Amino acid sequence: MVVLGHLLIEGPVKVLRRKLDMITQWKAWAAELEPAEAELHKSLAPSVAEVVKGKRLLLLDRIAKSLQWPDTRLHQDMTSGFKIVGEEFPSGIFPLEPRPATLTPEELLAQSRSTKPLIWGQINDSPLDANSRELFEITEAEYREKGWLEQPRTWEELELLFGDWLPAKRFGVRQRDKLRPIDDLAANGANSAFAACDKLTLRAFDELVWCATYCEYLCKKEPSTLSSPVVGIKTDRARPLLKTIDLKAAYKQLPLHPEHRRFCVVFLKHPDSSQVRGYASRVLPFGASGSVTCFNRVARLILQEAWILNCNYFDDFPVLELSALSGSADSTAHCIPDLLGFECSTEKEEPFKSSADVLGVTVDLSCEDLSEVRVRNREVKCCEVAASVDEVLDRGAIRSAEIASLFGRIQFLEGQLMGRMGRLALSELRSLGTSGGILKLGDSERHAFQNLRERLLHGPPRAISARPPGANVIVFTGGLRAGGW
């Protein structure tokens, strides 16, 4: 909002100058702090130093202080490691919503003496599956190549190293052509010993769409009706464009406190020898409740005051910019993380465009007359869900085990269309979730699935008007029933 305000008041040229001055200042600070950065890294615990190698921690701290950033504990956590059990301190950047833990860290460790052999036994007795070898190879790469995990250890070695510790079962979730490792810190009790304090505010999509509609509105105005340096710029140079910057391996860029490695010892069975070994984690585990707020505290700061219109949703940074400034915004959005030592995913990154995939949907700003922003489901997701629906229709039945997953996917996609027909079709199918076993489809269920499939593949996008709202129209309705009102 601050950047948008300066853009409207000062115009693109002055905002560009502010951006260049800021980057020049931060680069000068980086050079000044280089010797102190080297000494700081030498003083860090080995497990922390391995993870934050290449990160300019003192520069991040100086930037935070120059912005009067309210999260004053961030530098301490970046240098000593983040904790994933115990009480969370208020960060000052999110609203408070305390959620007490059901276990203290001491109770968790005392409990581990009985849960430890139980989880170990479950992992040891579980059969290998189709993903076991790939999951093992990913885990080995995290140890040998990336330094996210420590070397594999036996039960006896872990007992000697930690005394009390917790095994975490690792499983893989297939996401298209990629297997994502998840560490189960709910089953070992670690998540029950985390007392959350902050409530994350995830409004990136709403912020992005609002800014896009407002920019479109300004591009259409005549200088005589609104006084702003943006108004009157040629449309081809003022048209808003967008893209997404994505932090690579988000949680894995942040260190786990050395004393909290004991709460996440990842266990896997070797696909050839069937021996079970444990890898102590050096990074925030994907599966720990505490990792969520820890990561978001860092993410909110990275592109703060970058003088670009950006939002933040976990590791995604949707960026909106006028076409005249898109080149500068692209350079800045990559320069700042690179300067601080954070790695971005550039392999599949798209350039600034009028239509882009953002936060799971496609946001389209290509409307010729700049009258609306269109939001539609990503084509690949629609095709995937439609294929799942086709499979159910071909079988003429649905298994109770797949209902929740399929309905969740349909409901997310249907939510972007905001149509009454879709809601009615979903309500027709909702009763299936209360049954068990294999459920045969009747005519009404089959028709509802066909309706939803058609809407997913051919439904119109949601259109958000770029025109300011006019006078409100209030409609009073009533219903008649037999015998009167």
Describe this structure in words.
The protein has a domain at 379-465. It is globular and about 70 Å long. 45% of the residues lie in helices and 16% in strands. By secondary structure, it is α+β, with helices and mostly antiparallel strands. The model has no long low-confidence stretch (mean pLDDT 89). It has helices at residues 2-10, 12-43, 46-51, 57-66, 74-80, 105-125, 132-144, 155-162, 204-220, 235-238, 289-302, 326-340, 379-395, 400-415, 420-430, 443-458; strands spanning 86-87, 96-99, 167-175, 178-184, 194-198, 240-246, 265-269, 276-280, 309-310, 316-322, 355-358, 361-364, 372-377, 397-399, 438-440, 462-465. Helix 2 (12-43) runs parallel beside helix 12 (326-340). It is built from 16 helices and 16 strands. It starts with a helix and ends in a 20-residue tail after the last strand. The strands form 5 sheets. Strands 4-3-7-8 form a 4-stranded mixed β-sheet, with helices on both faces. A 4-stranded antiparallel β-sheet has the order 11-12-13-16. Strands 1-5-2 form a 3-stranded mixed β-sheet, with helices on one face.
